[in-house]
Amino acid sequence: MKKSRLWMFAAILLFCGLTVSSCKKAEHTVPIEADATDFAVITDVVPDAILEIRYYSTYNFVGARVDGYLEPVALMTKKAADSLRAVSDDLKQQGYRLKIYDAYRPQMAVSHFVRWAEDLSDTAMKPYFYPNVDKSLLFKEGYIAEKSGHSRGSTVDLTIVDMATGKEVDMGGVFDWFGMESHPDCGGNPETMEYRPNDTITATQFENRMILRQAMMRHGFKPLPEEWWHFTLENEPFPDTYFTFPVKRNL
User: Catalytic amino acids?
Assistant: First the structure.
């Protein structure tokens, strides 16, 4: 009888051990690209950030809500969001607030961009975002690609708002404009912040771009040579991971 109970007890322990082991193994089989554990809602970290999530709306170069944007919120890795809070505090002392157009972008959204770019007949938003670029050249000239740094979770597209007027600061160009006018060096040298007189942007517009650029760089973000609004955390936590989970508040 005692031996029978011992065997039963041993069997129970073995079963429980296998169950726990199986559960642990199952946890590790969840792909990292589908795991939002290390992400935060930006406005939970930077409460006074203004959001204009273009890809949740129809006012973007695609002309429709983009796949993967389930709610008009902005997400970033926690590390990047903490650095963005430092940027916000810096700019508030200068009289500005952050306005965010996009941050984490799921891979399904990037794939949506690719499908749109391949459909050369769809040019509904051309007058607003790429009037001087033939749609057939969007891949060749690097405006559309099959992978985006945004999908790694530590990149943000943004501008600044004047706290005194409540209006966007004039950057001499709009977000997601496909053209040389969007380059940070359009109108001057970003490294020296020296303005170069030209017919594209004014000295004030160039200076406004530099205010945003310098604040972002002071707190660990690196700029993109082609877009004045685009910045990536230099020491991003997931440099090789392209995440797939959708944009929504409840992560």
Answer: 227
